[in-house]
Design goal:
69% helix, 11% strand, 12 helices, rod-shaped, single chain, 5-stranded mixed beta sheet, 410 residues, two-stranded antiparallel ribbon
């Protein structure tokens, strides 16, 4: 007998679904028992009240068997709420000479149970349905009912007391289940937050360690490139040929360009992107120091592209290095007045993921073998950025217009 009173095993893995099933099981079991007792009681002392309790007892017995057989609560919950609503409202209208003190408690139970098991839509539906029914009763039947109320017998009073106790117990049980599930939800949420906080701290620690490691790698790469630069300078110093020294200087500038990228990487927390404007200023300053022109060149650097990733910055920086180096060596001499180099990098608004490089110098280029190699290198690097360029030369100077793709985004 005690095993039958205990909620049967279900396949629910969610705690809240299991709580709703247990609530439905316990309520139907209690209602089946007590409604049958009240039915028997009124059948003896007040037979006119027995019918509704008998119907209620029958439906709760069916619901209990359905729950035991199917182990699903939603269909049972819908049947219970609909049948209960029907019985409560018909008792109000079909028993006009009775005091309907208990019906509001049943209406409250139906709404609370619907909210807890079926959701807010069902809960609001039964509130609205009962509100309409009670409103009609108050407007059209209340006064007549008051005039026809008969004296309450001892049996009726005892039955109402028993029913009132049943309603209070069910309301208390539903509220207790609601509070218990809320406490469980708060406890699980707290545990989940603590777990997330712990995992977050572990992830942050790993990210920090990874950042430090990558910064150290960039630092070592920069140092190794500087060692290579020093070796090339030593070798260049032992070279007699001026042409060979020029080739050494070009190689040193290219290595310096990449070393500067790694320097900017380990100096910043964001290891994936470089501040382009800051980098260009440092790059041009380094190129002016390495080439040491005998005349002053004005540089006009402008960019609307704030950040560039590692895959794009290397070929872009080498292209600018080649352009600036070739301009200094092959476009200007001491006779030029106000030599100027302009570099403008901007995004293409109509084509996200692409940007342009507009390079201009107002010098008069002299065709040399070194400059020709530089052009070949620029063409190769432009293809690496999936771009193209046009060169326009006139009396005003030379103008390169590049169109590139941000290959970091692919």
């Amino acid at each position: 007998m005690l095993a039958f009173l205990k909620p049967p095993q279900t396949t629910f893995t969610d705690y809240y679904e299991k709580a709703r099933f247990d609530l439905t099981w316990n309520i139907t079991l209690v209602l089946a028992l007590f409604l049958f007792l009240i039915f028997c009681f009124f059948l003896i002392v007040e037979p006119r009240f027995a019918l509704h309790y008998g119907i209620g007892a029958f439906f709760t017995v069916v619901a209990t068997y359905w729950l035991f057989l199917k182990r699903q609560y939603k269909g049972v919950a819908r049947m219970l709420t609909i049948c209960s609503c029907f019985l409560v409202n018909t008792s109000i209208f079909l028993l006009p000479n009775s005091i309907h003190y208990i019906e509001p408690f049943w209406i409250l139970i139906i709404a609370l149970y619907a909210f807890f098991t079926l959701g807010k839509n069902w809960g609001f539906f039964f509130i609205l349905a009962n509100l309409i029914s009670i409103g009609l009763y108050f407007v059209f039947f209340l006064y007549e009912n008051i005039l026809r109320i008969e004296a309450i017998s001892l049996g009726q009073a005892l039955g109402m007391t028993l029913e009132f106790a049943l309603c209070c117990g069910i309301i208390g049980y539903i509220v207790n289940q609601f509070l218990s599930t809320n406490l469980r939800a708060e406890s699980e949420l707290k545990m989940a937050n603590e777990k997330i906080t712990g995992e977050k701290s572990v992830v942050e620690k790993l990210v920090k360690e990874k950042t430090v490691l990558l910064q150290e790698i960039h630092h070592r790469v920069k140092n190794n490139l500087q060692v290579i630069t020093s070796l090339l300078r030593m070798q260049s110093g032992k070279t007699v040929s001026d042409e060979t020294k020029i080739h050494f200087e070009d190689a040193i500038n290219r290595i310096m360009t990449m070393a500067l990228i790694h320097q900017r990487m380990y100096e910043k927390d964001n290891l994936g992107e470089i501040d382009l404007n800051e980098y260009l200023l440092a790059l041009v300053a380094g190129l002016k120091n390495s080439t040491s022109p005998e005349f002053k060149i004005t540089f006009d650097l402008q960019t609307s592209v704030e950040k560039v990733g590692m895959k794009s910055i290397v070929p872009l920086a080498l292209i600018i290095t080649e352009l600036v180096t070739n301009s200094i060596k092959h476009a200007f001499d001491a006779s030029d007045k106000e030599p100027l180099i302009k570099v403008n990098i901007s995004e293409i608004n109509a084509d996200p993921g692409f940007f342009t490089l507009n390079y201009f110098d107002n010098g008069k280029w002299k065709t040399t073998e070194g400059a020709s190699f530089g052009i070949e290198l620029i063409e190769m690097l432009t293809e690496q950025l999936e771009g193209n360029f046009d060169l326009v030369k006139n009396d005003l100077g030379s103008n390169y217009l590049f169109s590139f793709k941000m290959i970091d985004e692919t």
